[in-house]
Specification:
There is one protein chain. The protein is an all-alpha fold. The chain is built from 2 helices and no strands. The protein has one domain. The protein is 87% helix and 0% strand. The chain is elongated. It starts with 6 loop residues before the first helix and ends with a helix. 3% of the residues are buried.
């Protein structure tokens, strides 16, 4: 079974991938290559945004859980 890759490593790899795709787009010679590079860049940026939003959701869930524990402790006391 494979180990999970850390969030920061995934974000770093996606940033590197986007940089490489930008290089491909800059060096492309025809419209087809530019279009394919644009599609790849859009997909990679979508993945990057998804991971960033997931991190925000995890933080929000942690804050919500903390507030629920505070409320529970106030009602129990």
């Amino acid at each position: 079974m494979e180990k999970h890759i850390a969030h920061d490593d995934i974000v770093k790899k996606l940033d590197i991938m986007i940089s490489r795709i930008n290089g491909l787009e800059a060096s492309s010679t025809d419209d087809y290559q530019r279009s394919m590079s644009s599609v790849l860049k859009t997909l990679a940026q979508g993945e990057l945004n998804m991971f960033q939003e997931l991190e925000h959701m995890k933080k929000a869930l942690d804050l919500l859980t903390l507030e629920l524990f505070k409320i529970k402790n106030k009602t129990d006391a």
